[in-house]
Structure formats: C-alpha cells, structure tokens
From TrEMBL:
It comes from Staphylococcus carnosus (strain TM300). Keywords: NADP, Oxidoreductase. Substrate binds at H111. Residues 15-263 form the NADP-dependent oxidoreductase domain. This is Aldo/keto reductase family protein. Belongs to the aldo/keto reductase family.
C-alpha cells in the first residue's frame, strides 16, 4: 500500500473503499469486512449515505478477522449540509461516531461547500474547533472548487489536508489539480470508475489488454500514478480484491497521456458551484 503525506505530516493510504450507494444492511457490513481482510486500511463513509451503522459493524468485524487494531485503519466520514454552522459541527461529528461505533475519525470532511460562503466559512471554523480540541486527526473538504478554497484560505487558520472531488479520465480537473498541488492539499477522487461507465472505454480496454490487467485496475493505477488518493466502490468480493491489486505495476508516460487525453470535462455528479443539498 502506498501512503500520501498531508500538510500536517499525517499520512493516509492512497487507496481505500468507498461505500456510496451501498445499502445499510449486510451488504455494507460484508463489503467493509472483506475489504479489511483483503488488506484495505482506508474506509470512506458519510452521514448522508445512510449506512454508517453497518459500515461500522463491518469495521469492527474486519478488525477482528484481520487481527489488527483500530489504529491500523484510516476512517473518513463527512458533515452534511444539514449540520452546517460552527455550533452544529460537533453534533454532526458525534452522530457519525455513534453510528460507526468509533471513538474518533482519522478524517472528517465538509461534504459540499453549499452556496452560502459565509455559512461555509462559519462551518469550517467548527471543523477547526474539532481539530484543535484533538477530537479528530485530520480535517478537509469535499467537492470544493478553487474559488471555494480561496475563500476558505482568506478566512481560516487551518488549511484543509485534502479535497475529495470528482476525478476520472473524462473529467481530469487540471486547473484544480494544479492549484491543490501548489497549496499542498492532497486530492482524492470519488467514483473514479464513473459508476463503471469508464470501464467500457476503448482506450482503457486497449491498455488493459496490453498489460494484462482489468480496465478497473488501469483506471485506479492512473489515479495512483497521478498522485491522487482514490476510493473505488464495490460490494463484490472479487472486485474488492481486484481493485486493491494495483501495486505491482505502473503505467508508462505514454499510457498515462492516452488516458488523460480522454478528458471531456464531463461530470457525473453535481456542479459544486450550484449544489446545495
């Protein structure tokens, strides 16, 4: 497993399991448990996914099955817009902790910036309060564009360690990536496989055939070779294992360029500048 270092010198696994759109039942529990048994050490959750309870059970069962400790894992969750405002952040955080059955999170993110910059700034101050109190190891943001980050920078004491955003070969986000690199903020991709849409791309399949890897492994490796942290989602045991099996090869500069050239500035999720829940 590769790790990325944050601007506060803490580290995070570069590959984890996402659980968006996974039912709050044994499906979520078993996927998380199997991921941990298979070697995953990062799980990405969120309050609004509605499955933190069973994700939490999967974490506990995974810890026992893998013979590891809670400290070996890196668990993320996210603050939803309903809990915006400095005085509400702690409540949202405690709700996720209770749901997950955990004493702390390794990373807590503002899930979306919303459309009210003053409220966003006030909410970030609540995130800073959590961090300064030692209740969470790292704080960051999700779905923030450059303008959001510049606004935050002008009104905050603590810089986000990470920005989790939509990123895949059809939406390569070059300006945002360059900005994050300059600012020392890690970039993390959600839905890197585009809900499987990218797996039918001919260029991706040609490269997969060239190197005897699956299309999913090629796209995940493209994320890793770009220095991006990524959290592909799957509930299928074989695919969970396959998605992790990407550390025994690299893509050539030519292959990387071919995949990057697929960019269409095509989103599959909302535009952060307009989304307000």
């Amino acid at each position: 497993m590769k790790y990325k270092t944050f601007n506060n010198d803490n580290t995070m696994p570069q590959l984890g399991l996402g659980v968006f759109r996974v039912e709050n039942d044994d499906t979520a529990k078993n996927a998380v448990k199997h991921a941990i048994e298979s070697g995953y050490r990062s799980i990405d959750a969120a309050l609004v996914y509605g499955n933190e309870e069973m994700v939490g059970r999967g974490i506990q069962e995974g810890i026992e099955a893998a013979g590891i400790t809670r400290e070996d894992l890196f668990i993320t969750s996210k603050l939803w817009l309903d809990d915006f405002g400095r005085d509400n952040v702690a409540k949202g955080y405690e709700t996720s902790l209770k749901n997950l059955g955990l004493d702390y999170l390794d990373l807590y993110l503002i899930h979306w910036p919303g459309t009210d910059n003053d409220l966003m700034i006030d909410t970030w101050k609540g995130m800073e309060d959590l961090y300064n109190a030692g209740k969470v190891k790292n704080i960051g943001v999700s779905n923030f564009n450059v303008e959001h980050l510049e606004t935050l920078k002008a009104h905050s004491e603590i810089q986000p360690v990470i920005n989790q955003v939509e990123f895949h070969p059809y939406f390569t986000q070059e300006p945002l990536r360059n900005y994050l690199k300059e600012e020392g903020i890690q970039m993390e991709s959600w839905s890197p496989l585009m809900n499987a849409e990218i797996l039918s791309d001919q260029t991706v399949n040609d490269i997969a055939n060239e190197i005897d890897k699956s299309p999913a492994q090629v796209v995940i490796r493209w994320n890793i070779d770009n220095g991006v942290i990524t959290i592909p989602k799957s509930v299928t045991p074989s695919r969970i294992e396959e998605n992790l099996d990407v550390f025994d090869f690299s893509l050539t500069p030519e292959q990387m360029d071919k995949i990057s050239s697929l960019n269409q500035n095509k989103r599959i999720g909302p535009n952060p500048a307009e989304f307000n829940g």
